[in-house]
Amino acid sequence: MKVGDSSSSNLAITITVEKDGFYEVNGTRQEPTVSLYMTAGASKLRRMLRETDDLIVCPGVYDGISARIAMGLGFKAMYMTGAGTTASRLGMADLGLAQLYDMRTNAEMIANLDPFGPPLIADMDTGYGGPLMVSKSVQQYIQAGVAGFHIEDQIQNKRCGHLAGKKVVDLEEYLTRIRAAKLTKDRLRSDIVLIARTDALQQHGYDECIRRLKAARDLGADVGLLEGFTSKEMARQAVQDLAPWPLLLNMVENGAGPIITTKEAQEMGFRIMIFSFACFAPAYLGIKSALERLKNEGVVGIPDGLGPKKLFEVCGLMDSMKIDTEAGGSGFTNGV
């Protein structure tokens, strides 16, 4: 069997496969080899968007244990929340205090817990500066293994999208960020998914949001995100106004907008849905309750069976034991 492949530069390569499994490339005999490559998270996410109509549901994770739990429950994608990252790493409110180093290192850790695992979408805030910083941020997210990111039009002194008092830059400055991000991912030949986010609703209204997202779409952004819908009708209208461009819905319960379920979002036509506070808020409630009991009763009150080993199993204990044992190590000879 011969396969000829010619490119636009008229370079022809002829491969001859023989019955014994050996093959020739332009007359040179070669042994058969098989190379297996991991599918990068970015390519997985892009394929999910391109080849299915399913809503991609992403719980908002903010550290290793929350990500491990999400993976253990079989979620097909995850979202690294900026609010949760700021709170967990800095102990601060989401007021633009986390910078590129904080966000990239957290995203890199989460994205690489399981290289074969679900793709990770990560918050990139404003890109952390002008075009050069946006480019640097995109490159570092790509190198970290992030599958997709959203970049927004708030001023550098930004805040959580579900707080009042947000201010955005003018359209041209916003498009400079989008353009820098697109140029960088193209230069690096990355499949990373570029999500254009606008927070202009509070300051400029719905029509300006649509104008900004259409402009970002025209520059090559892969997905749009209008932050802070004030009604279900507005959310549904945005999908229609921007169709067939895929939109992401950020669902923040008790935030600026109504509660929209995954079923409703699917019916509206959203393609990705992130739940930014899905882990952060329950963690606060659980930790607070446990520490109140410790303070008042002298014990934490952890349920039977939830000991150190069980928690470590969630964090990959069995995989670590397998690696050590198969390599001939003796670290777990006597068990754990």
Automatic annotation (TrEMBL):
SUPFAM superfamilies: Phosphoenolpyruvate/pyruvate domain. Pfam families: PEP_mutase. GO terms for molecular function: hydrolase activity; methylisocitrate lyase activity. Keywords: Hydrolase. It comes from the Eukaryota. It catalyses: (2S,3R)-3-hydroxybutane-1,2,3-tricarboxylate = pyruvate + succinate. Belongs to the isocitrate lyase/PEP mutase superfamily. This is Oxaloacetate acetylhydrolase. It comes from Aspergillus nomiae NRRL (strain ATCC 15546 / NRRL 13137 / CBS 260.88 / M93).
